[in-house]
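[Meeting: bench + compute handoff]

Bench side (C.D.) handed over the final construct sequence. Compute side (W.E.) agreed to return the predicted structure before the next meeting so the bench team could plan truncations. Sequence as handed over:
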Amino acid sequence: MRLVIDPQSTTPPFEQIRMQVIDAVRTGTLTPGDKLPTVRRLAEDLGLAPNTVARSYRALEQDEVIETRGRLGSFVAATGDATQRQMQQAAVVYAERATSLGVDVDEALAIVRAALGASR
């Protein structure tokens, strides 16, 4: 896996790293158990501060995409696609809330589509 940081992007470098790792897990480029570069190594390779990479790794750990095993390093978590799992949980919460507010399915989907369109 090769990560690339676009310095012209409005997306912060830590988020670019996070999204690229998630995408690599989703596409199978990274599989459970694959070892990630150390924070220092990746920071050096990308020309970033170590704290930037560490922030990405912390966010990926929080999202259960990776796990850190002390001095052994960071690895792709064996728990499957944590992003998909979290999105499913968020969808269930949204659906329950829409139902409790009396919003029909078509309107609820339109709201989501509008929100997704607005975030791009």
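W.E. noted at the follow-up: The mean pLDDT is 90. C.D. will use this when planning the next construct.
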